[in-house]
Amino acid sequence: MGILENTLRQIENLDKEAIAQAEERLDNLIKPIGSLGALEDIAAKMAGITGKVKNKISKKNIVVMCADNGVCDEGVSAAPQEITYAMANYFTMGVTGVCVLAEHNNAELTIVDIGVKGKFDNPKIINKKIAEGTKNILKGSAMTREEAVRAIEIGIETVDKLVAEGYDLLGTGEVGIGNTTTSAAVLSVLSELPVETVVGKGAGLTEEQYINKKRVISEAITLNSPNKEDVIDVIAKVGGFDIAGLCGCYLGAAKNRVPIVIDGFISSAAALCAYRLNPLARDYMFSSHLSAEPGAAYMMKELGLEPILNLRMRLGEGTGCPMAFNIIEAALAAMNNMYTFNETIMSNENLVDIREK
User: Fold this and answer.
1) What is the fold, at CATH topology level, of the domain defined by 60-327?
2) Pick the catalytic residue: 317, 329, 349, 356?
3) What tens digit of pLDDT does each residue of 208-236 get?
4) 317 annotated active-site
5) SS in 3 state form for the chain?
6) How far apart are CA 64 and CA 94, in angstroms?
7) Domain range list for the chain
8) Is the pTM of this model over 0.90?
9) Contact at 8 Å (CB) between 257 and 169?
10) Tens of pLDDT, residues 30-85
11) What residues contact residue 72 under an 8 Å CB cut-off, 6+ apart?
């Protein structure tokens, strides 16, 4: 049995008993019932993931999958493809958006070259290169089915290693010029939404370039005719190595019963793929923020998840994850450290029961 098939079989439901116990505790904290809103939902979900009512995060890590996309040959991005290679190196210098925000929130990064054009001489970049970028989807499939499966399995293996090293809260990020094009294509196919609905301008396209981007995606879908019932076929035909790798990260997190945070549009495309491969994988995901990309809201609807934040961000890299980490840890702090009414000194005659307010 292959790594992917084995992983899909190992993913289980959340612990419903732990969720019920967590909800009971939340309802009995010294506050009106439900008054902490989404923080209560997060704390209860975490209980379901770990099987424990009280949880504390020890180590946080954001996996950044780096890959190039052959569709860049069609002028779908305002940035040159060389930016992918440069950004991967910048991540190791601690100077990009996700680096700064991760450091601020005491999180670490794992930088994976899963398909960047060019060879790195950088020990901080993990070499898992499948190929030097995907092929141009306007001329054929992005990759072979075997490459798509291998990319997913790289994500699973990456998470397995991090969990073994004690990381218990994960995030997802990426860099790859042209990957809003591949993500929009994946969403359009899996959701059967029109290309015009889900495609955005990415990194600052002109109106002319935007029109071209929509044309390229539409023609690529027609040419490759991906089977929406076969997620791996969709990834192989119109996706990217970064999307496939992150898809594996979500599956690996679910298998290991570790929470994992979605960043933006590209990370969401990968999450949607993981969800379609095994719907239970969604239960281990948290959505960090609502990306400003037009397709992001549709992605969340397909996943049935509500973003924790809405900051009009569209940078990618994993930048939404560190801020979501902070909110998740705040939810756990409330669960762990607030008293219930039974834990409060009940002899206090002035104690007022405010749970129904």
Assistant:
1) Rossmann fold (3.40.50)
2) 317
3) 999 999 999 999 999 999 999 999 999 99
4) yes
5) CCHHHHHHHHCCCCCHHHHHHHHHHHHHECCCCCCCCHHHHHHHHHHHHHCCCCCCCCCEEEEEEEECCHHHHHCCCCCCCHHHHHHHHHHHHCCCHHHHHHHHCCCEEEEEEEECCCCCCCCCEEECCCCCCCCCCCCCCCCCHHHHHHHHHHHHHHHHHHHHCCCCEEEEEEECCCHHHHHHHHHHHHHCCCHHHHCCCCCCCCHHHHHHHHHHHHHHHHHHCCCCCCHHHHHHHHCCHHHHHHHHHHHHHHHCCCCEEECCHHHHHHHHHHHHHCHHHHHHEEECECCCCCCHHHHHHHHCCCCCECCCCCCCCCCHHHHHHHHHHHHHHHHHHCCECCCCCCCCCCCCCCCCC
6) 13
7) 60-327
8) yes
9) no
10) 999 999 999 999 999 999 999 999 999 999 999 999 999 999 999 999 999 999 99
11) 81, 177, 178
Picking from 252, 271, 319, 304, the residue whose alpha carbon sits closest to that of residue 64 is: 319
Token readout for 213 is 């981007």
Which residue, 101, 96, 38, is CA-closest to 322?
A: 101
Q: In whole angstroms, what is the distance from residue 60 CA to residue 346 CA?
A: 38
